[in-house]
Amino acid sequence: MENQTPRKSNPLALLPIGVFLVIYLGFGLIFEYVLHINMGFYNVQAIVVFLIALLAAMLQVGGLSFDEKVRIMARGVADENVLTMCLIFLTAGAFSGAVGAAGGVDSTVNLFLTFLPARFAVAGLFLISCFISLSMGSSCATIAALAPIAVGFSQTTGFALALCLGAVVCGAMFGDNLSMISDTTIAAVRTQGCEMRDKFRMNFLIVLPAALLTLVILLVVTPGASAQPEVGAFSVWKVLPYLVVLVGALIGLNVFGVLLAGILLSLVVGIATGAFPWTDIFNVTFSGVSNMYDITVISIIVACIGALVDYGGGLQAIIDFIRARIHSRKGAQLGIAALVAGVDIATANNTIAIVMAGPIAKDISQEFDIDPRRTASLLDIFASVIQGVLPYGAQLLYAVSGAAVMGYTISSVQLLPYLYYPLLMAVCALVFILFIPQRQGKK
Q1: CA dihedral 161, 165, 170, 172 (to 10 degrees)
Q2: Which of 123, 163, 214, 423 has its CA 20 to 30 A from that of 316?
Q3: What is the pLDDT of residues 1-53, one digit of tens each?
């Protein structure tokens, strides 16, 4: 049987990631801007490109039989984060299908716009996403719940779909980075050995300016709907499934339990209001689940690629490259940021990135006398920065899948210009590293 530990540092093991980026972004840009094909990015199917990248990863790992490579990939897929993510995809899809068929999306948008001027709708969507993700601790579940509402906002107000979805992703990354029950927060705190509340305080002060600036930007870029559009009728009963899901998330209930409750309530409301007959309960649920097939398969393929890249020494190459260039306390903090960012690019999973980079970051912190709270905050922040803008990351894929459930096709690349918060979060964290010195005696 093959060696269970990764090989020595090997930068070439990162080739599959480069293959994906070159093909996906390269052909998308060519189709869209060189050949001027309408919606050219949609001609580049992500699943196909990921399969090409997986083939490159398998060919690159030499000295092993096909069965041994499959076993390596199986360990990557068996990671609890990957399996949980796939199950959330399917459950969230079922909820989106059921609540959409019951008329919940339209009613929720109309209710929201009845009490909120349209020009504040996108900024309000960002704040709602911040609040939910902070309480739920899951950016993916937040995006899955709010993406259909973002589509409804776009339809009603006339604002770009990419802008509305981007606002949801921005708010989701706020909570993913800060929430006390977020797996990234837990991983960062555990690997650095500091208290959760202490990390939260330091982290919050770093990212608060980014959140406020994002809110201001969203208000500035959405002046076009100053005239309130005609708002349709809404039914509180049809909004109820969303309220149950959101309240359940806020009080910290299990995400699967909350979504299952939302599915059952949506089916009951849909039947009771005549939105669909009871004989269609399986069809409306399946319609949402089927729209999540692509993202589920992509998650599995990405896990396989990440496992092969790790085994081939790609992640170790990132670690070794960064450690060799650290010579000061500020340099050490920048190195920690680059370390977790690089691992996240390679794995497309910010929790895994923190878990893998955490022990190395702790060694660097001890060597350069860096406050563990500071290190934990930087790990969580820069993992969230990359995860929030990664075209093949779960968050952006959730957003475009949420649009697909509503019948709209959009590429994750099209969201990038509207992801203000992750980029501002990176700027604020860099300012913190370079200009806010560590206070001695406060560890």
Answers
A1: 170
A2: 423
A3: 444 454 577 888 888 888 887 887 788 778 867 887 755 666 777 788 889 99
The span from the CA of 157 to the CA of 153, in Å, is 6
Q: How far apart are alpha carbons 365 and 370 in whole angstroms?
A: 5
- φ/ψ of 230, rounded to 5, equals -65, 125
Q: What is the pLDDT of residue 180?
A: 67
Tokens standing for residue 34: 């060189």
User: What is the torsional sign of CA 162, 148, 243, 178?
Assistant: negative
First to last CA, the chain: 46
Is 131 in a helix, a strand, or coil?
helix
Q: In terms of Cα–Cα distance, which of 246, 218, 291, 262 is closest to 138?
A: 246
Cβ(284)–Cβ(269) below 8 Å? no
> 342: how many CB neighbours lie within 10 A of its CB?
22
DSSP string, 359-417: HHHHHHHHHTT--HHHHHHHHHHHHHHHHTT-TTSHHHHHHHHHHHHTT----GGGGGG
Amino acid identity of 220?
V
pTM, rounded to two decimals: 0.69
Among 236, 238, 245, 240, which residue's Cα sits nearest to residue 95?
245
- CA dist., res. 287 & res. 266, Å (int): 14
C-alpha closest to that of 40 among 51, 28, 48:
28
Residue 18 to residue 299: CA distance in whole angstroms: 18
Identify the DSSP state of 49.
Answer: H
Neighbours of 57 (CB within 10 A): 29
